[in-house]
Amino acid sequence: MLPSAIILAMRRKAKVNTTQYSDADALIDLNIRKNEFWSALMATVQEPYDWQQWTATSVSLQSEYTLVDVTTTTAGTKLLNSLSIAYDSETYTDTGSIEYTKARRVDPFSLPKDWDYYVENQNILDPIYYIADNSVFIAPAPRSTEAGTNRIKLTGIRNIPDWTLSSIETAMKIPVDQQESLVYGLVVDGLYAKGSDDGTINNAEARWIRRKTEAIKTMENRLEATTFMLYPNQTASYNSNDIIFS
């Protein structure tokens, strides 16, 4: 369903017209419901929906790297699953892909020494990292001969930038067969906009919560069957704005 179709379906169910509730206002509320659904999905389902890989340039003697902010228009980093780093230019023989070393995520407060010690002395064969606010901190920091383009690889899940009335289905990320649940979330807002009584709105809210839960459960259930899959063997291409150096 396109955003315009979701809004139209909401109008039929809530019996609300464009004078009472404009398409522009409905779109604002639909994006709020979409974000609510996506966050609930990330918190519930272990499968990495919209899983992605992206790379960035490492900088000599720099340990902290700022992730792209999650905004209404930018697909920032919503969930970081792993980080790998290359301290040289070695590549695999057949594919030509960079040979990354997967870093271990650590709790810096549980380490026996101060973090700066590891930035200086951690073995490049066993890199470590932690996340704080919207930054990742990597140790050891690459030296001048170890830094380079695409030397940092991250995997994780991006947020969904706000939809527009002209958004296409492939940009919506939420599976088509689960988008109908968003109609019920938007019905709540439509009823509120036209001044429905509290009982009607509360019933609609309960229906939305139930539909959202059912949709997420359906998406979760596809993990219950034995599945064999191959992960992408190439790093997706993103521009240099994917990570902003601080």
Keywords:
246 residues, alpha+beta, 2 domains, five-stranded mixed β-sheet, 32% helix, elongated
Offer a concise description of the structure.
The chain is α+β, with helices and mostly antiparallel strands and 246 residues long. The chain has helices at 3-14, 23-44, 115-121, 180-193, 198-221; strands at residues 51-56, 64-67, 77-85, 101-102, 104-105, 128-132, 135-139, 152-158, 243-245. The model is unreliable at 70-74 and 223-246 (pLDDT under 50).
Share in β-strands: 15-25%
Gross geometry: elongated
Task: Identify low-pLDDT runs.
Answer: 70-74, 223-246
- Secondary structure tally: strands: 9
* Tally of separate helices: 5
Mean pLDDT: 82
> Major β-sheet, in short?
5 strands, mixed
Protein described:
This protein is α+β, with helices and mostly antiparallel strands. The protein folds into two domains: 3-46 and 161-221, no CATH class; 51-159, no CATH class. It is 32% helix and 17% strand. The protein contains five helices and nine strands. It has helices spanning 3-14, 23-44, 115-121, 180-193, 198-221, and strands spanning 51-56, 64-67, 77-85, 101-102, 104-105, 128-132, 135-139, 152-158, 243-245. The strands form two sheets. Strands 5-6-7-2-9 form a five-stranded mixed β-sheet. A four-stranded antiparallel β-sheet has the order 1-8-3-4, with no helix packed on it. Strand 6 and strand 7 form a beta hairpin. Helix 1 (3-14) crosses helix 2, helix 1 packs across helix 4 (180-193) and helix 2 crosses helix 4. The longest helix has 24 residues, at 198-221. Mean pLDDT is 82; it is low at 70-74 and 223-246.
